[in-house]
Amino acid sequence: MTLAEYAAARSTHPQALRSEYVQLFRDSTAAPLAPVTRCEEHEGVVKFCLDVGSGLETESVIIPMDSYRGSKWHTLCVSTQVGCRMGCTFCETGRMGLMRNLTIEEIVTQRIVARRLRHQRTSLPTRPYSYFRDGIRNVVFMGMGEPFDNFDNLVGAIRVLNEPNGLAIPLTQMTVSTVGRIDGLQQLADIVRREPSWANLRIALSLNASNDAVRTQIMPINKSAPLAELQRALLDYPLARRGLYLIEYVMLAGVNDSVEDADAVADWCRPLRCVVNLIPYNPQRDAAYATSDDATVFRFLRRLRSHGIFVKRRVTQGRNLMGACGQLGNPELRRPRRTNRAAGEPVDSNPA
Length: 352
Ligand code: SAH
Ligand code: SF4
What we know:
Largest sheet: 10 strands, mixed
CATH class: Alpha Beta
Oligomer: single chain
Number of strands: 14
Number of helices: 10
CATH superfamily: Aldolase class I
Bound molecules: S-adenosyl-L-homocysteine, iron/sulfur cluster
CATH architecture: Alpha-Beta Barrel
Structural class: alpha/beta
Strand order of the largest sheet: 1-2-3-4-7-8-9-10-11-12
Number of domains: 1
Order of helices and strands: HHEEEEEHEHEHEHEHHEHEHEEE
Strand content: 15-25%
Radius of gyration: 20 Å
């Protein structure tokens, strides 16, 4: 809850509850939190899971980052769902199908637990009001799930994370990554129109293909939200004046990594203010694709640069933990596609 919601629930003026609220959020020992069921570390990357009942878990990853200028910080990757219904063929989470949406509390708790874990693993002070000193600067909604499939809880969680009397994470330090749900972008655009500061929220789009034929093959959403419409939706979105879209592109050997693909990606990106992030494919448990080799990734990167596109190659971290992009998901929870056991309802396999 934001402070305003917390006060409304108690029928009190926010000012009267402000210090109680501040204490609740910033004292890492105050609130009972979902139990950590798994926590593994490899080369500084920490993957942790929280028990959210019925045998389900959230998965989150704390990733160390280095800036070009030598400063160090961490990014927290959070889940918005357990599983995902989008069925992208290269993604481990997609194979699980959707188990359920996470609540606002379950999303926010991932950030609070990350802080606890950082304090346990380092000598950072555990006293209250030291939220800004746990070394985690950014929150990216790139864990399990399609954030726009859980729109209200996503927005609710961002509000709580952003609450000045709570964790106070600036919108510029939160990134929502979407498979490309145009209606989700439009709903977010409506919020930006009502609350202009939301233009600072960062948007990442998973592009992953240079043409509709390949994109539809690897990302079923493309049937209802093809590339031209997606580009239009991004052009229409009221992004902050200096904002940039992050365009994510998973490199799949022989599928989407040719020079012709790079040319087509450059054409698609040209009208957008964006930076392209090339992500070498992280193998799934019984790898369906192969990772493009370094020479191919750099050829693709140079080609995009030659077209004047700003492009970076993402350094892969967390593969040994199955904690890298697209590797989150518990195979034991995998369910037959098109059924939603929890709700007993069919799951739409062609969403948008
Ligand atoms: N559902 C959202 C956010 C979660 S996926 C989305 O699709 O954007 C986060 C990122 O991981 C996406 O950019 C996705 O394309 C990428 N990804 C999925 N599977 C991957 C894999 N096996 N290797 C590398 N990146 C992958
Ligand atoms: Fe879902 Fe994103 Fe994975 Fe696609 S890439 S299945 S949208 S989590």
